[in-house]
Request: fold
Amino acid sequence: MDKLIVRTAEAGDIDAIAAMEQVCFSTPWSRESIAHDLTDNSMAQYLVAELDGVIAGYGGMWVIVDEGHITNVAVLPRYRNKKIATLLMSVLLTAGERQGIRRFTLEVRSSNEAAKALYRKLNFKEAGLRKGYYQDTGEDALIMWRDPAEPPKN
Ligand SMILES: CC(C)(COP(=O)(O)OP(=O)(O)OC[C@H]1O[C@@H](n2cnc3c(N)ncnc32)[C@H](O)[C@@H]1OP(=O)(O)O)[C@@H](O)C(=O)NCCC(=O)NCCS
Reply:
């Protein structure tokens, strides 16, 4: 039976995350950047999703004052469409809210329909565009923000 757990990323996960970056992104983060975030950066919070002992996905954010800046979320191709990214993001957001983070933001390639759909489902809204932000293709970055849920009306 498949056993899926989400846990805090540790130094021992650096190689698996670096390998996932190579598979999942056209401009992957370097191993050094990942190692820095996992071991030295006090603003960084990363999670991994482990399916039957294999690191299937990861996600992270930087906490900047009371804002959560999502840095990356990725799931290995063979494990996609199993709601693993949804789970990773939900745990990141809930953990952030418990620490008092009110707003979350991220950047996504304007052509990345899967990621945009994922973020919209989690209540991120499109808030702006950085024209030609991605140097490899000259593609625009869509900036998305997620505001605190409205309090229920009486
Ligand atoms: C984007 C990504 C993380 C999604 O991971 P995943 O585990 O397959 O996503 P989930 O199964 O949780 O899907 C959540 C929602 O995302 C959307 N989605 C996922 N894959 C999709 C696709 N290929 N096309 C359109 N929407 C898609 C859907 O709305 C889906 O909800 P639904 O199943 O109820 O329709 C994964 O495709 C990936 O790693 N891509 C490469 C890295 C990347 O682009 N990361 C984002 C950087 S900003």
Summary: The chain has four helices and seven strands. The longest helix spans residues 84-98. The two ends are 45 Å apart (CA to CA). The first strand starts at residue 4 and ends at 8.
